Amino acid sequence: MPAKLTISTEDRALECARLALDKKATNVRILDIHRLTTIADMLVLADGGSDKQVQAIAESVRQGLKKYGKVQEIEGLTEGKWALIDYGDVLVHVFQREIRSHYDLDGLWSAAAEVPIPVEYQWENRG
User: Fold this and answer.
1) Helix %, strand %, coil % for the chain, to 5?
2) How much is the pTM?
3) What radius of gyration, in Å, describes the C-alpha atoms of the chain?
4) Of 37, 34, 45, nearest in space to 9 by CA
5) Residues with Cβ < 8 Å from 92, sequence gap 6 or more?
């Protein structure tokens, strides 16, 4: 059995963001929370426009990161309203917009530093 590749926490978060953006996720953010909590080091937040898109984004992240090891936990994938993917060091939240607004994790973690996402990963502002 081949050994799993290793990846840094920041690179894992960036790869999660890239994979989400590949499925046309919107409002993607990476927050560095390691100084604020022990639950994880980074959060990746993303929006999907429908149940199917939330599911597709979460599945893209799960499949894309398989080469770096198994996900610890995945919740909400069947419903497609709010999917949580837990890698231990990185938590990925994929929401439908109204769910994200209601729970306001962006506000809850407003003291966290934001990690810039490379422009080449982003599709929303391309001309």
Assistant:
1) 35, 25, 40
2) 0.92
3) 14
4) 34
5) 16, 20, 43, 44, 46, 58, 61, 83, 84, 85, 86
pLDDT at 126 over 80: no
What are residue 83's DSSP bridge partners?
Answer: 94
In the prediction, which pLDDT does 125 show?
Answer: 63
Whole-number pLDDT of residue 74: 95
Q: Give DSSP secondary structure letters for 53-103.
A: HHHHHHHHHHHHTGGG---SEEESTTT-SEEEEE-SSEEEEEEEHHHHHHH
Cα distances from 40 to residues 18, 76, 108, in angstroms, run: 19, 19, 15
Residue 91, beta-bridge partner list = 43, 86
Distance between CA atoms of residues 50 and 43, nearest Å: 21
